[in-house]
Amino acid sequence: MICSLNEIEALARKAARGGGMSWGLAEETGKAVRWLSDHGFPGPWLLAELLEQNDGTPYAELAPQQSDGTWRARRGPLCPIIAGALICDRADDLTTGAGLRLGQVAVPLMLAPFAAEVSRATGLNTALEWHGITLILDGNSVAMEGESAALLAPYAGLVNLTPTNEPAFPTPRTSTGRHVSAEVMRTLESFAMRTYAPATEASRAGAGAGVESD
After folding, report:
1. This protein's superkingdom (predicted)?
2. What is the DSSP-derived secondary structure letter of residue 201?
């Protein structure tokens, strides 16, 4: 089905929260998935892939820590939402010409919205590269170079974010990124359902409290 960007953002936010993210990270996830969908990428599918990969893993173990100049998770692949927050926090590093190296990243395309935000904040074009593919971002537009087959990779051993002089070209807005398959919808809705507290005898008994009978 074709969903609106508002619907996609709201579902992504709730699914991320149900998948164990804090409300702050869930808010960032909703915005990231909306950006991806708006630029023609399958944001909901990417989020479903990420949540299934991380299901049951404490997010404290997915947080980045630096070793030998590369940021990695304490255990397993880096979550791109947590890593995206790191990218934004260290935006000033790119203004000095330095880059960021991220090791073992899950669903690396989900870093793109955060790289775009860094470009917008610094006024610099950025290059996000993994597995032979490079995205050039300027805050509004995105261009792609290299092996398109790697675009939807569920995992990347190394991701580099660097400043670049390469231009990014306007991205045609289509409904492609707003198409959500029935399978992806079921997956996201199943995570979103976890945000609802199960009914108890007390809550059921109190459901009609305060309503007077005739």
Report:
1. Bacteria
2. H
Q: Which residues are 202's β-sheet partners?
A: none
Q: Are 26 and 13 in contact (CB under 8 A)?
A: yes
> Which secondary structure element, helix H or strand E, spans residue 160, and what is its range?
strand 155-164
Residue 197's beta-bridge partner residues? Answer: none
Q: Contact 16/30 with Cβ under 8 angstroms? A: yes
The pTM of this model reads 0.87
The partner residues of 129 in beta bridges, in order of sequence, read: 134, 160
What confidence tier does 214 reach under pLDDT thresholds 50, 70, 90? very low
Q: Which amino acid is at 134?
A: T
Both tokens of residue 94?
């790119």
Q: Which residues, including other chains, have CB under 8 Å from residue 147's CB and lie 6 or more apart?
A: 131, 132, 133
Q: Residue 211: pLDDT above 80? A: no
**What confidence tens digit (pLDDT) does each residue in 31-62 have?**
999 999 999 999 999 999 999 999 988 878 88
Residue whose C-alpha is closest to residue 140's, from 23, 35, 58:
35
Q: Where are the domains of the chain?
A: 5-170+180-194
